[in-house]
From TrEMBL:
Response regulatory domain location: 3-122
GO biological process: phosphorelay signal transduction system; regulation of DNA-templated transcription
Superkingdom per UniProt: Bacteria
Name assigned to this protein: DNA-binding response regulator
Keyword Ribonucleoprotein (UniProt): no
A Pfam family this chain is assigned to: GerE
SMART domains named among the record's database cross-references: HTH_LUXR, REC
4-aspartylphosphate PTM positions: 54
Transmembrane segments: none
InterPro entries, per the entry: CheY-like_superfamily, EvgA-like, NreC/VraR/RcsB-like_REC, Sig_transdc_resp-reg_C-effctor, Sig_transdc_resp-reg_receiver, Tscrpt_reg_LuxR_C
Organism the protein comes from: Pseudomonas poae
GO molecular-function terms, A-Z: DNA binding
Start and end residues of each HTH luxR-type domain: 143-208
Length: 211
C-alpha cells in the first residue's frame, strides 16, 4: 500500500483528496499539512511514498511555489511529488516540472486523475491532467523540463510591471520608448505562453521577481 502525504491550506480540499486517494484501498494518507512549514516538519518525521501538494499555500517561513518544489527536490530527491494546482498557464507547468514535480493535476480535473497521477509517479513515470495536456498541445510546447527563457530586458520589464508600474512609467525609468516596453512585454508573454496580466504577475511572484 502506498503511503501518501497531502498538503493544502484548505481543509475541505484535503478531506476530498483523502477520500479520492484512499478509495480503492491501494493508498493510505499518512499525514496532512496546511502549509510549507507544517509540510517540511511532517516530512522530517513521517515516511511516505508519494507527496501530493498544492502549489500556492500562503503564510509560513518556508518558500512556496517553485521555491518549495526546489527545496523538496534537494532534501528528498527520491520522493515523487504530485503537484495539484489551479495555475494553468504553460510557463507554470514547464517550470514546475523543471523544479522537480513529477505530476501536475489541475484542481478542476476529474477525481480519477489524482489516483492515476499517484500510481504513475510511484512507477517512476510522469503525469499531467488531460485538460493541461490539451492546453500545452495547443501552445505547441515541447520538452516540459525546459522552462521558457526570457532576455534580461524582458525579465526587467516583467519585474517592474509586477511591482505595480505602468508601461509609461517603465519607459521613463529605463529610458526606452513606450512601444519598446510594450513590445518586450508582449514578447515575454508569448515566450511564457501567458495570455493575461494576472497570469504574468503570478509568474513574476512565483519566480521570485517580486516579493
Amino acid at each position: 500500500m502506498l503511503r501518501v502525504i497531502i498538503a493544502d491550506d484548505h481543509p475541505i480540499v484535503r478531506i476530498g483528496q483523502r477520500v479520492v486517494i484512499e478509495t480503492g484501498g491501494r493508498c493510505k494518507v499518512v499525514g496532512e499539512a496546511d502549509g510549507p512549514d507544517e509540510l517540511l516538519a511532517l516530512l522530517s518525521v513521517e515516511v511516505c511514498d508519494v507527496l501530493v501538494t498544492d502549489f500556492a499555500m500562503p503564510g509560513g517561513r518556508q518558500p512556496d511555489g517553485y521555491g518549495l518544489l526546489s527545496l523538496l527536490h534537494r532534501q528528498y530527491p527520491s520522493l515523487p511529488v504530485v503537484l495539484v494546482t489551479m495555475f494553468a498557464n504553460v510557463s507554470t507547468l514547464r517550470e514546475a516540472f523543471a523544479q522537480g514535480a513529477q505530476a501536475i493535476v489541475a484542481k478542476s480535473a476529474a477525481a480519477k486523475e489524482l489516483p492515476q497521477a499517484i500510481k504513475a509517479v510511484a512507477k517512476g513515470q510522469t503525469f499531467i491532467s488531460e485538460c493541461l495536456r490539451v492546453q500545452m498541445g495547443v501552445a505547441g510546447t515541447v520538452g516540459l523540463s525546459k522552462p521558457a527563457q526570457l532576455s534580461s530586458k524582458e525579465r526587467e520589464v516583467v519585474r517592474l510591471l509586477a511591482s505595480g508600474m505602468t508601461v509609461t512609467q517603465i519607459s521613463v525609468q529605463l529610458n526606452r520608448t513606450v512601444s519598446t516596453i510594450s513590445k518586450q512585454k508582449s514578447t515575454a508573454m508569448q515566450r511564457l505562453c501567458i495570455g493575461t496580466d494576472v497570469d504574468l504577475f503570478a509568474y513574476a511572484r512565483n519566480c521570485g521577481l517580486v516579493p
